[in-house]
Structure formats: structure tokens, C-alpha cells
Fold:
Amino acid sequence: MTMDDFAVLIQKDYLSLRKDMAAGFSQVHEEAKEHARQLRTEMGIGFRNLDADVKMLTDAMVSKADLANTLAEELAKTPIARRIADHETRANALEGKVGIRPTRRAA
Structure:
């Protein structure tokens, strides 16, 4: 075996390794592309579900101000609230007759 034969064998071995590595890299690349495609699909489904959940929560939420107004309106309709308002009116009338300036204000 001469040095030229040895160089040819090394070159052939190198080309064979290079082809095997290129095939391996392309296989890994295809697997990664498929995995990324699958992950993108799963994330898309998850985001659609998340959007639906956020919309449902937003539709169901009531602001604190709306809740306070509704609560005040409902309390004003109760018989006890009417009696309290009646007592406040009477107390203000009596204080006015006696000469006391009204200091209490309804909230």
C-alpha cells in the first residue's frame, strides 16, 4: 500500500462519514421541524381555550362600583331602610324645631 492509496482510502472514509453525518443532521432537522409544528398546534389550541376562558370571566365580572350601586339600590327597597329614612326625617324635623343644627349626614 502506497501513500497515495492510503490518502485515497482516507478521502473515501471522510466522504462516507460526511454523508452519514449529513443524513443524520437532516433526520434530526426533520424531527425538530415536526416537533415544532406539533408544539405550535398544541399552543394554538391552548391559546384559543385561554381566550375563551378570559372572555367568559370578563363577561361574568362585575365592577366594584356596579356592585356597590346595586347593593345600595336593593337595600333602599327594604322596609328597614324606609323606616330608617323616616326616623332620620323625624329627627331632622325635631332638631330643626329645637334649634340644633343637623350634624349627621346620610352616607
